[in-house]
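Sequence only, no structure available. Ideas?
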Amino acid sequence: MSPLRMRVAHIDSLTPAIRRLRLVAADGAPLPAFTAGAHIGVHVPLGERTQRRAYSLVNAHGPADHYEIAVLLEPASSGGSRWMHALQAGDEFDIDAPRNDFALATGARRHLLIAGGIGITPILAMAHALGAAGEPYALHYAARDASSMAYHDEVGALPVATRWFDGGDPRHGIPLAETIGKPEAGAHLYVCGPAGLIAATLAAARALGWPDDALHSELFAATPAAPGDAEAPFEVRLAASDRVLVVPPGTSILDVMIDAGLDPLYDCKRGDCGVCATQLIDGEPDHRDICLSDDDRARGAFCPCVSRAKSACLVLDL
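Reply:
I predicted one. Tokens follow.
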């Protein structure tokens, strides 16, 4: 589908660091419909090329005459959030149509929603959709304090929502084991937020016996290298393209391919959607995504947007 031209209709602040944007079609045409958990890919001009940044849609419970997103200003980011925070009402830009990689499970008997920080955006859309459909759910939302909690009042108005304030110490946040509980037939768990919350939530659920097919997650940042890891340059051989590229420290395989004039398929560039996944033919990978399962990796799946090499060379089917 061709990109959609959008206009910023309204902007307001949810917290000192989070802006809410209401987007409408620049030509006034109806917008493609979407379901709770969906995101749009915003075309952000950074340097000499345009990059895509994914933002979850918050308003899954209403008509598709506008899209609502919330953007956290991240000082350590590559510039996408700063560009979004510089937008003003009336500005226009392109987006990719909504795509859902974090959908509610069909046929579920109960839904447990867990969010941290800006991860509330798809989770709140899910809560509204479930409430409108009369489906049972519970929502738990964690933040440092009330002033940094986006949609604080809207979440508080939900009859089955609990807000947790940890003061910056996750140990004082959501009591995960107690909140998650033992698995029940037809129950599904959804978690979105920082990597630490996601990892802790999934680990707690698995320890309690929850099956993997009942666990759903979406990350709002790329998986970082482990502390102390030294990123060395390595070589990538692209078998289908008959190209050899050198990947320097601090640069992804995907960006090296784009700089070389190739046109790889990708979306989030954060390792959480799997759009860019390709087949590893040879070499020892350093997987840094969160979207591939152990079985996927065992079959050779590899995400060049964030993952790197432990060996001197990787051979990819690209």
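The CA atoms of residues 2 and 260 lie 24 Å apart.
Hope that gets you unstuck.
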